[in-house]
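sry for the spam today, last one i promise. struct tokens for design, 91 residues
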């Protein structure tokens, strides 16, 4: 995601509000994680760090819907499957 034209706290509040509106719950012990569950044990987990976002889960349809919704709401790029995050290589 590209930095919103606001201070970091306002930017985080904007993104947090969007996730809550979309049915995600903020993890009570780690505020960078947001979790959405659906019937049938489907789950989508998001990790948000400043303007970097990664997600994982167990349902490809949830991935597609999430990315489409995010692209409508924010200016962002999809770099595909994760290779690096915060300087750590992911294999």
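last one done:
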């Amino acid at each position: 995601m590209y930095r919103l034209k606001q201070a970091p706290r306002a930017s985080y509040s904007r993104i947090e509000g969007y996730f809550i509106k979309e049915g995600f719950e903020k993890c009570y012990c780690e505020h960078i994680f947001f979790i959405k569950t659906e019937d049938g044990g489907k789950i989508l987990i998001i990790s948000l760090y400043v303007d970097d976002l990664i997600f994982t889960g167990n349902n490809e349809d949830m991935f597609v819907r999430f990315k489409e919704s995010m692209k409508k709401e924010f200016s962002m790029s999809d770099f595909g499957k994760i290779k690096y995050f915060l300087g750590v290589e992911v294999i």
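Residues 35 and 45 are 5 Å apart (CA to CA). ok im logging off now
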